[in-house]
């Protein structure tokens, strides 16, 4: 598996993978207002918006297995998504570690928001040494503004290289 920066040619694959994985992680765990704001358009528009700060994990045939979107300004992991067929093989962990390496030296800590019901993602973050700092509210962007989403905020301290 290699991790490389995303390219514009990846966008259709990224938007589809992100949408499917997002639904897996959020359906039944977030309010209808957020679900309504997360149609296919949202993922197409935001995949394009973030393509310059997205990294992808690829398999032996060059196929995209997962993506991670980084908020370089403040050390946020904005999104992590792995294709359903590639889960449980360390792809998510590899992407998370690559994010930590990219942030190291530029931020004292990395952070992310996860909805309380996304138990699998929370287990993975804890397995990789991220710490749950407790409940918080995340302002999730929509086409018309933001929706307040109850989340848990996880952080990881980043020692200098
Ligand atoms: C959460 C998510 C990113 C995890 O990705 P992943 O590639 O499956 O993650 P990993 O394989 O690194 O680790 C997940 C599991 O595999 C196990 N694992 C890790 N490395 C492994 C390996 N080499 N072989 C077998 N299993 C392994 C982990 O222990 C963990 O097990 P668990 O879920 O039973 O606790 C993925 O499930 C996903 O995309 N979910 C939907 C979207 C989502 O929820 N994103 C996060 C939003 S905050």
Write the layout of secondary structure elements.
Elements (H helix, E strand, L loop, with lengths): L1 E4 L5 H16 L5 H5 L3 H10 L4 E5 L5 E8 L4 E7 L8 H13 L5 E6 L4 H9 L3 E11 L4 E12 L4
Antiparallel strand pairs: 1-2, 2-3, 3-4, 5-7, 6-7
Care to give the gist of this entry?
The protein has 161 residues and is α+β, with helices and mostly antiparallel strands. It contains five helices and seven strands; from the N terminus they run βαααβββαβαββ.
Task: Describe this structure as you would to a colleague.
The protein is α+β, with helices and mostly antiparallel strands and 161 residues long. 33% of the residues lie in helices and 33% in strands. The chain is built from 5 helices and 7 strands; from the N terminus they run βαααβββαβαββ. It has a 4-stranded antiparallel β-sheet, sandwiched between helices. α1 (11-26) crosses α3. It is globular and about 40 Å long. The chain starts with a strand and ends with a strand. The mean pLDDT is 96. Bound molecules: coenzyme A. The site of coenzyme A (COA) has 20 residues, from α1, β4, α4 and α5.
